[in-house]
Write a structure and sequence with these properties.
By secondary structure, the chain is mainly α. The chain contains eleven helices and no strands. The longest helix is centred in the last third of the chain and has 41 residues. It comes from Caenorhabditis nigoni.
């Protein structure tokens, strides 16, 4: 009996060694660690220097801060988890030391799952808050910051509840090779969870597109009605913040959607498609798309904010600037003088009456 158990354990240790030292797997572990290491200071800079100083309404600003802070925490957890994967093989004295301790795996896997899925659900709050802001455009600038924090709390608690339901029957007693690999007992529930997250990502993206279309029509309607400057300003703020959240959501959908589709496909085709258990495990253990997003979104976010600020500056300049030279300048001067004398004449007539 003891000999059988020893043989099984040795087989698992051999499998851990084959997977760990697979060239493609090794490179993927290094890439995930390296890109997460770069993403941590980049996200922190973007959060403090760009997001915290945005002139958006407090509700959407609070949710954006929570979104990028959760991405920062996620990048930190991934850096620690995959740093462990990358460096431990250099110091392991036996194959069995490559197998993760059950408690360590549980802490690393659950924390990574939580901080990976929070940014997937928070964009739902973006869409809800933007629709509310659009519906209350006449008075939304005076609305206090409450809806944003409430949505964040509700979505995070929903995420925690979903993760709990996935792992509530999991004992975490299998030999684990990677923090990203899903325990066999919870595999079916996790697949359903991934499908749900994919549907959420796609649905939320289309909601953002619909929001911008509705906003465009509403903005034209308000302009024809000659609404007050405060309403126009609020519509412009809603437009800019909605465009920014759309860019964030679309970029997130590209990277995270690719990962979700890839991992669901790998789990669906099974090990026979890959020609063995080792390459199948390697395919499941590669985790590059989402950590790469954590770095890429910083550059995308900075560029999009720069473009929005440039368009706003140009729009203001084109609105308030009046040419004073040449034929157009003479025409502008003539119109200004005519308007002035018309106002003076109407004032004199009023006095005489």
């Amino acid at each position: 009996m003891n000999q059988t158990i020893l043989t099984i354990n040795q087989t698992k240790c051999d499998l851990a060694s084959e997977v760990t030292f697979h060239p493609f797997y090794r490179f993927a572990q290094f890439w995930t660690f390296f890109v997460s290491l770069l993403a941590i200071p980049a996200l922190l800079y973007f959060l403090v220097k760009k997001i915290c100083v945005l002139r958006f309404h407090g509700n959407i600003k609070f949710m954006l801060i929570c979104y990028f802070f959760s991405s920062f925490l996620f990048a930190t957890v991934v850096m620690l988890d995959f740093g462990y994967h990358f460096f431990v093989p250099f110091f392991a004295s036996s194959k069995c030391q490559l197998i993760l301790d059950s408690t360590l795996f549980k802490a690393g896997h659950l924390s990574m799952t939580l901080f990976m899925t929070i940014p997937m659900l928070l964009p739902i709050g973006f869409s809800i808050e933007r629709f509310v802001a659009l519906g209350m455009a006449r008075s939304y600038e005076n609305v206090r910051t409450l809806l944003g924090p409430v949505l964040v709390v509700v979505l995070i608690l929903s995420d925690v509840n979903l993760i709990y339901n996935v792992f509530k029957n999991e004992k975490f007693d299998d030999p684990f090779i990677s923090f990203i690999l899903i325990p066999a007992t919870s595999a079916a529930q996790f697949n359903n969870f991934f499908w749900f997250l994919l549907y959420v990502e796609i649905t939320n993206f289309f909601c953002n597109c619909i929001l911008l279309l509705v906003h465009s029509r509403l903005k034209n309607k308000f302009l024809r009605q000659r609404r007050t400057l405060s309403v126009r300003y609020e519509l412009e703020e809603i437009s800019q913040s909605s465009q920014f959240t759309l860019i964030v959501s679309f970029t997130h959908l590209l990277f995270v959607g690719w990962y979700l589709i890839a991992i669901i496909s790998v789990r669906t085709v099974g090990k026979d498609f890959f020609g063995g258990y080792v390459p199948y495990t390697v395919a499941r253990g590669v985790y590059c798309a989402v950590p790469t997003y954590n770095l890429i979104i910083v550059f995308v976010g900075i560029k999009s904010l720069q473009m929005m600020n440039l368009r706003r500056h140009n729009k203001v300049q084109s609105t308030v600037q009046m040419k004073t030279t040449g034929r157009e300048g003479a025409k502008n001067y003539e119109v200004a003088i005519s308007n002035y004398w018309s106002s003076v004449s109407s004032g004199i007539n009023t006095v005489q009456a």
